[in-house]
Amino acid sequence: MAGLRDPNTKSLRTTRRTAIGLILGTPLLGACSGVQQTLNNQFGQPPPPDAAQQQSQSVGTGRVKVGLVLPLSAAGNAGVAAQSMKNAAEMALAEFNNPDVQLLVKDDAGNPQGAQSATQQALDEGAEIILGPLFAQSVPAAAQLTRARGISMIAFSTDSSVAGRGVYLLSFLPESDVNRIIGYAASVGKRSYAALLPDNAYGGVVEAAFKQVVGTKGGRIAAFEKYGSDRAAAARTIAQALAGADSLLLADDGDALAGVSDALTAAGVDLRRLQLLGTGLWDNPRVFATPALQGGLYAAPDPSGFRSFSGRYRARFGQDPVRTATLAYDAVALVAALARTQATRRFSSDVLTNPSGFAGIDGLFRFRADGSNERGLAVMRVATGGAQAVAGSPKSFGA
Prior knowledge:
Blueprint: E1 57-59, E2 64-70, H1 76-95, E3 101-107, H2 112-124, E4 129-131, H3 138-149, E5 152-155, E6 167-169, H4 174-187, E7 192-198, H5 201-216, E8 220-227, H6 231-239, E9 247-250, H7 254-266, E10 275-278, H8 285-288, E11 297-300, H9 304-317, H10 325-341, H11 349-352, E12 358-360, E13 363-367, E14 373-375, E15 378-383, E16 386-391
Parallel strand pairs: 2-3, 2-4, 4-5, 5-6, 7-8, 7-9, 9-10, 10-11
Antiparallel strand pairs: 1-3, 11-15, 12-13, 13-14, 15-16
Helix pairs in contact: 1-10, 2-3, 4-5, 6-7
């Protein structure tokens, strides 16, 4: 495994709980403490920008120039998250013991036009790789420019449809959560699966991954249903079919998930008979406090890494980081490590898609040739006092 490691500093390998990077369809991003932090709909319209974009900045004096494109002047939580990610990027440079990297920080104001302009500026100033943008709609606009120059991009969107040739996503993709939790369930003998999912963009991604991985694991889908605002109707529809299932996948965030479990119970479902399965959105105090969800299993990075990162971040900046801050940290740590070890090939597709992957704040990750990623996740159990580890994060990727 190719770790993000500077021989002169401590390992950059720490892990973290699961968040969905940026949001798919509804506000779903959680913090380590479980306090929800909302960004904007990554599949829909980006947030409106503030009146003026921020001035470009540079961090570091290294010879290897790296563009960092973030919505620094975007309104609301998007701008707050961007500033936290910028801070984390600066922290990565500092903790990597003065790498030969200079960050060219550009504000895209949270929209595609701004992303294209910011990327063009970074490329004109000699950027060898672009980190960002954050929002799904901004990625293709920026990618037009990077592909024309033959330069790689590591974006932070969670919409895998914007990945592709030369565009890699360093984010938390729902597919990874589903693959891990269904794979674990299969390893302990579960064979008959049901799923009750939200009828939104996030639910659509989870549905596709669920149906695919159940098939590859030799399981069967006993029941499947999606819900909109009327969870009770969907719960009643799926209730009878659950008699043929041994596990049930639920993929929603705290309050919504509690409402789903209440609806299922009201429909006569004995949730204690089923192994409840979930995604990283389950890492939320509301879930831990819901009696019906006790014993449920979900996939997530081990939370210890984010705790360690958060402590260092607070010491440096006097405030807590947003959950997506580790994405910027790991991106900068990665390019710093590759600049130090890979000479002129440092940001080539062959290097970035190393099958051994890399080790970052949130554990193992690797980029696939199609631009999506795979993460090494732990399996956690819901308990009243918080999450309990059932199966640890893998130490390496399989072949």
